[in-house]
Every structure is written in structure tokens, then in C-alpha cells.
Amino acid sequence: MALAFRTLCITLCGLIVAPLIVATLTLVAARWYYPDDLPAVAPAADYVIDKVHIVDVAAGRLVRDQQLLIRQGRIAAIAPAGTPHGADIARRDGQGAFVLPGLTDMHVHVYDRKELVLNLTYGVTRVRNLRGMPMHLRWRQELQQGRWLGASLVTASPALDGPDYAHALQEVITTPAQARARVERYQREGWDLIKAYGYLAPDVLAALVARAAELGLPVAKHAPHNGEGDLSPLQGLQSLEHVEDIFQGPLNYTFDDARLANFIGTLRQVDSYVTPTLATFNHLTLLSEHKQAFVAGLPTRFLNPFFTWLNYEFASKRWLQADQAQAEWNRREHDYLLHITRQLHLAGIRLLVGSDAGTFYMVAGDSTHREMRLLQTAGLPPAAVLRAATLTPAQALGIDADYGLVAAGKVADLVLTRANPLADVAALDQITAVIKGGQWLGQYELSALRASAEKTAPWWVGAGNLLDDLTQRGWRR
């Protein structure tokens, strides 16, 4: 009997202690993990790019046959093509390329450092991550220190929501006091903005927004859901996310243009930026219609394996198993979301390009281009789409003194395309070079970045990063 009892105790200890040891080792290893093939930031170089056409995204016009002088990572001067310079200034022949500001994707979910590398190959030089985890603060610091080359990272806090619809990757708050405490904590921790979901109680949301405003911390929130008839607490938000939530909230799943017009009138008074995120609903629609045949055509080799599995289990699988009736409904809603977006644009609502990359097999950079094409399909002129990916994000982030235009004095985050993007944003499929902080990335360099981006972090690193997030949020409670 004593031997059997000791055996039972040892077995139970093994069942409890061993997983704790494995989890702890995984967490620690994930924090220390650092890929050995991240691209390097090159020393600043001075050079001119000659024979290019500048895309003026503010005016929606071309300035032809120009030359850009790049010094210390900024555009030092713009002059007519062929302007002479001293022998100490290297010259690059732009060969008639079209130059526009680097793109910003204002709604992504980043799960791997290599996604920030991959973004550059699509001309995406800045992203706004909208569900913060501890790894994001580490990666942002590494980028700011110049330890490796990738798209600049703006990261929101862990997402805040009410108790009814929250999941494991979100934090639940139920009282105004909790809301104020979370905002204060997130400011101390160094997050760039607060991310709020759509189901916070009105008094909780009001307290969150008010305290964030007092501390100068921006807030991005899912678009209003049912029960949020009073939009005044949303005044001054950095942005509202997802036209899908407009359809499912204020329109209550109805294809009601009169109701939409009334809502847009109210929204204009709030004067907030809106991020449609058409690409993510486009993906779930195609998943429901074409199932694995659609997935097979995607560049999934660039996705982090652990978080792709997690996303499959809790999101993608639902749509891969959708029946014909659900697929037909998704297509109808999808097309109406395009209509909502067009009406927002016509009403003068300021739109932002945001793809929701990281969901539904959506690959960094590629999803940004998809979002831009969908905005054009919705009826936005190419010039408006380009503004929504360049100047308007810079204004929303408060960095338009340095970014958002091809102009003297701006930071040299630039994209060169073979075709004219003012004629069709699909010209971004023909990128000839990307410039990040003055660093020239031609075809050879972009190919190297893409090859590096295929080598994502191992499965156990993703699991460790999730465990790190869950652990730290658990200590906050």
C-alpha cells in the first residue's frame, strides 16, 4: 500500500511539475530567441535618384522627370532630372520609375519578426499592430536601436473588451476604475496606443477614452456595435476599425441604405479616421466559397507556424467548414461592405489602409496590396487609395512632419514602381525598389529579404511568446 501510494504521488508530481518545467523553459527560450539571418541596417549613404516621376499623393498628380537627393536618410532636395552633383554623390538611374511614399498598414497582427522584413518587399515601411503582446515591445525596441531592418512598428496595448465576447487574447474590464487603471499601466509599459474592442460598457468606454486623452495616449476601437447610439465618447479616437462592425452593429445586419446614411451623418460629427479592413472579410468569404483550393494558392510559407495553427483552430476552420448558405451570405455581406466603404469616402470620412494581416492566412504586405485593390474596387479613385496608405496614416499617427509625402525634409521611406499607381494601384505589383530610412533596397536586396522572411520562428517560439503574453496578463489581474 505504501509503495503504491508513493508511486501515485510520483506520477502526480510528474504530471504537474514536468509540464510546468517545460512551459517555463519554453517561455524563457522564446524571450531569448533571436534569428541569426535578420537583415542589417546599412550605414547612411548619400546619393541621388535620377529620372523619376514623383507621385504627389496630396494633390493626386504626377511631377514628372525629377531627381531626389538623399542625405542621411532624408530627402535633402528635389530638382529636375539631370541636375549635376559633385563626384562624391553616387547616382542611381531611376529609369522613369514612379516614386511614392512608403506604405503604412494601419491594422495588422504581427506574430513573427520576419513579417516586418517581408512587409518591406511590398513597399510597406510602417505597420500598426493592433493586439499587443510582450514580444512587440521587444521587437519595436530592436528596430529603433537599428539592430535589424524591417518595417517600423507601432504597437497597440493588449486588447480590452467586455466580458460577453472576450477571448483568451484579450483583457476583460468591467468597471470605469479598471479602465483607468489599465490605461495608466499601458502608458507606463510604453505601448503606443490603446486597443479597445466593441463590447465595452458605455461608462467603461467613456472612462477609458477620457483617461487616455488626459495621458496623451491614442485609442483605436472597433466600430460601434448595437447599443452604442451615442457616439460622443468616440470623439478624438485615433481610428475606428472594420466596416464589418458597422454592418453588424449600427445596421444590425440589414442592407439598409437609409440607415447607413443616418449613421454616416452621425459619424461625421465624431470626425474619426476609419479603417475598413476589407481584405480580412474578403479572405473569409473566399475561404467559405473555395475552401482549401483558395488556401493552396496563398504564400503560406511566410506565416508563423504556431500562430497559423492557432488562427486555424479559432477562426479559419469555421469558414473552411461553412456550408453553401453561409458562403452565399458572406458574399452578399462582402459586396455590401464595399458599398459602405464607398459611401464613407463620398461623405468625406478619412479612410486608412488596414488589412488585418495575420488573420485567415493573410500574409504581411500581400494583404496590404489586397486591401488597396479592394478599396479601388469599392469605387475609391487610385489617388484616394494611395492617400489612405501614405499621407492619411501619417496624419492619424501624428508623424506627418516627417512622413507621408515625397518632399524635401521628409524621411526617405519610399517606393519605386514601374507603372503609374495613380492610374491603377495594381502598379504596386511591379515594385522596382524600396527605400527605408534612406537605405536602398533594389531587386537583389528585396529578393534576399524575401528569402529571409521564409525562415520564420519555430513552432515552440510562437508557443513561448503566447505563454509569455498569458503569464504577464495573468499577473496584471
Describe the structure.
This protein is of the alpha/beta class. It folds into two domains: 2-39 and 458-476, no CATH class; 100-453, TIM Barrel. Helix content is 44%, strand content 18%. The chain has helices at residues 2-32, 113-121, 134-144, 176-189, 202-215, 243-248, 257-270, 278-290, 292-296, 305-320, 324-346, 366-377, 382-389, 391-397, 443-453, 459-476; strands at residues 47-56, 61-71, 74-80, 90-101, 103-108, 124-129, 152-155, 159-161, 170-172, 194-196, 219-222, 239-241, 274-275, 414-417, 431-436, 439-441. β1 (47-56) and β2 (61-71) form a beta hairpin. It is globular. It starts with a helix and ends with a helix. The model has no long low-confidence stretch (mean pLDDT 92). Residues 201-440 form the Amidohydrolase-related domain. This is Amidohydrolase. GO terms for molecular function: hydrolase activity, acting on carbon-nitrogen (but not peptide) bonds. It comes from Simiduia agarivorans (strain DSM 21679 / JCM 13881 / BCRC 17597 / SA1).
